[in-house]
Model the fold of this input.
Amino acid sequence: MTPPTVLISGAGVAGPTLAHFLARHGFRPTVVERAGGLRSSGNPVDVRGPALPVAEELGIMPQLRAAATHATSMLVIDGKGRPAGRVPMPTSKSAAGNREVELPRGDLAAILQEAARDDAELLWDDTVTSLRQDGGGVDVTFERATPRRFDLVVGADGLHSTVRRLVFGPEPDFVRHMGVWVATMPLDGPSDRPHDVLMHNTPGRLVSIHPSTGRAMVAFIFRGPMVDGFDHRDTAQHKRIVTDAYAGAGWQVPQLLERLRQTDDLYFDSVSQVRLPSWSQGRVTLLGDAASCVSLFGDGSSLAMAGAYTLAAALAASTADHASAFAAYEQAHRVLTDAKQRAAGIATAMLVPRTKLGIATRNVAARVLLGHG
Ligand SMILES: Cc1cc2nc3c(=O)[nH]c(=O)nc-3n(C[C@H](O)[C@H](O)[C@H](O)COP(=O)(O)OP(=O)(O)OC[C@H]3O[C@@H](n4cnc5c(N)ncnc54)[C@H](O)[C@@H]3O)c2cc1C
Done:
């Protein structure tokens, strides 16, 4: 029997993990990625919880540790620029078990892509443009590659998934803005505090400086409604939104906004959750943020890796019956994503309190820990 072919759209976190495990189970994966090649930067993410056994089975724990950030705690900075509280990072050496790893998102994707390099055909700098399925397969057209037919298709193409749009419907039907925006950019050099994530709040706004792995990363995370005409690819619009949101802010914010004006490496998006009544339609299913984005505050990378593992195992267990496999994957993995989606609001309230009182209360909780981090 010829091995079943699977097209995976997206080589972020979920896509390469799925490709590796599908190949192990005897499938023939092809991964199509819109980006032109490996990207090395990115805000830090955690590999923890259900992703740890997946990383161990992939044999990538040494690479993850080698790429880990040097942050051990979050240091709250008050309006006068003074430390006002400290919270240990879950990934710091003092944390239980110390198996969790925090590393730049781009490095995690690169390590996973490397792990899947010999397992899948990779189509860089391309995207699916249409999908038409029948009882025997899915006919796929691409922007650049020649049209092909696959047994199955998986959309692992993130929050703004093209596969989801083509098969399930327009993005606004499934993506819910959580009333928060995020912008990140690298600084030119290291942070003054190589082991602390500096966090400075004003009501509804947070600025953080993360030491990352040498080149510090800045994040602007702030509350705001959906913007009319928001375009997730329009960098000039993003710079305007961030600059307006932080008008009048103190601490290092004026210098950071100046840097923002000049940067050509800005990530900006609405902090959103993705919810669909079903993750599959026929021979097409969704994975990672495309299916169930939890938002910035909810272990999205770890869930993406765990979901990929579960999907590959489900397909391996029912090779001839993809419908049962997709259902088993969704039933098992939704338990994790639903719980995280429910908890995301609490993390938002802690990181970006709406009021001065909320900031003060959060800081008191953090101050208890100052000196113990
Ligand atoms: C600022 C920020 C901070 C975060 N912090 C954390 C954290 O601390 N811990 C954590 O666990 N998670 C965190 N996350 C979330 C995490 O990055 C995502 O949840 C995770 O990467 C999801 O993996 P994914 O593979 O589903 O999607 P992604 O990693 O987004 O990958 C999707 C891939 O699909 C590609 N793509 C998009 N469209 C197409 C197309 N049409 N065709 C082909 N390819 C396409 C993209 O280029 C990308 O490579 C954070 C996210 C953000 C934005």
